[in-house]
Write a structure and sequence with these properties.
mainly alpha, about 80% helix
């Protein structure tokens, strides 16, 4: 009997160990998926356009703006991700608990910005397919929207979304590394002026921050972790690792695109203002560069379509049980409406840069709300939000507010 009992105990221990290893692996995949969801949500057509346009304006000094934006991004993401996951509540629910109605206002701003971004994302996806295949932008946009909708049609939509974001995220990194090497940028001057700039543009900094962690983007990863059941103080180390990974991926793609564009600009080559990023790719690799640009912008756009739709709807689903029950259909409708508006109105001129700036204005408001919430025990229990993060968070709120007002 003792022998049998011992055998059962061994089997039981082995099962527990296997289950723990499976859950740990599953959690790691979710954390990486959340990081790439945030990163690929940020790296959309607007991201590509903003980076190219501001590199033309600031040349080597744009590296400093990227560095500043990364520092701000880290302060923003660590604050937002920690507060949301510790509280176990979505951002809009925290805001409503803090002050009735505030969550509805926050949701309105986020969803409005997400919809505006998504129109540009759908347009960018259409441009990408046109560049690769020659079919019309409209056909490419509808095809891309259908692919995005298909992802949310899976029973395990969260896993499908995570895998999709990771695969295309790596594709974008490989493409931009190739282009950056091809253009032979002045690395010495770029690195020097990344730390000691010759000129500075506050609007460029505000736009970069808004386009990287502004609006819905700053909540994409945190809300994904909540939906996957990753919450509480015990998970903070994992949450921080996921947040920093997302920022790192975004920063690498941004800096490589900056270097690629810089090589073209410093060579005195003319860049088409109507499609600046395409000019960079074509000047770097000729006709083949056009194909690479198509794949790059399509990857950036389609992942942003998925991220914008998922995160925007996550700001609505907790307001009513029916919204929660049918959130998948609402997400699909969000993508369909974005596509329809694009088909009816066309690609809005300058909307991609403008919405990034707009999100830069929304960010200090959203961050301030969460920082105040982090001090309320009724919302976060016994958790004490680190003083260093609070100081960094409020510094970002003040800096962005000043830059937004045009005073700096």
């Amino acid at each position: 009997m003792r022998h049998r009992s011992g055998g059962r105990e061994c089997i039981s221990a082995s099962f527990v160990h296997s289950w723990q290893r499976y859950m740990s692996n599953k959690t790691s995949k979710t954390l990486l998926g959340a990081a790439f969801l945030m990163a690929t949500s940020a790296v959309g057509p607007g991201f590509l356009t903003q980076t190219t346009v501001f590199t033309q304006q600031l040349t080597t000094s744009f590296g400093f703006v990227i560095l500043l934006s990364v520092i701000i991004d880290l302060a923003v993401q660590f604050n937002i991700w920690q507060i949301i996951t510790v509280s176990g509540r979505h951002a809009q629910d925290l805001a409503n608990a803090l002050f009735p109605g505030l969550g509805y206002l926050l949701a309105f701003l986020i969803v409005l910005g997400g919809l505006a971004f998504n129109i540009g994302n759908v347009a960018g996806a259409g441009l990408g397919i046109e560049a690769m295949t020659g079919v019309s932008v409209e056909v490419g946009a509808v095809t891309s929207a259908a692919i995005a909708i298909a992802i949310f049609s899976f029973k395990e939509a969260g896993k499908a979304m995570d895998s999709f974001a990771k695969i295309l995220g790596f594709v974008m990194i490989i493409l931009i590394v190739y282009i950056a090497i091809t253009t032979s940028p002045p690395l010495g001057a770029a690195l020097q002026h990344t730390f000691i700039p010759q000129q500075f543009n506050s609007i460029a900094a505000l736009t970069l921050v808004g386009g990287t962690v502004g609006g819905y983007i700053s909540f994409a990863g945190a809300h994904r972790l909540l939906d996957a059941g990753i919450e509480g103080e015990s998970n903070l180390a994992k949450v921080n690792r996921s947040a920093s990974t997302g920022i790192l991926v975004t920063a690498v793609i941004r800096y490589l695109l900056f270097l690629a564009t810089l090589g073209i600009v410093m060579a005195g080559v003319s860049i088409n203002p109507d499609n600046p990023t395409a000019s960079v790719f074509e000047n770097a690799a000729g006709t083949f560069g056009k194909q690479l640009f198509g794949l790059m912008i399509w990857s950036a756009a389609i992942t942003s379509v998925v991220g914008a739709a998922y995160t925007s709807v996550s700001f609505l689903r907790s307001f009513h049980p029916l919204l929660e029950k049918h959130h998948t259909y609402i997400t699909i409708a969000f993508i369909a409406v974005s596509t329809l508006i694009f088909l009816l109105v066309g690609r809005p001129v300058k909307v991609l840069v403008f919405v990034g700036t707009l999100n830069g204005f929304v960010l200090p408001v959203a961050l301030a709300i969460l920082l105040v919430a982090s001090r309320k025990s009724m919302l976060v229990g016994t958790y004490k939000h680190p003083l260093a993060l609070q100081i960094a968070g409020w510094a970002v709120v003040i800096i962005l507010a000043i830059m937004g007002a045009g005073l700096f």
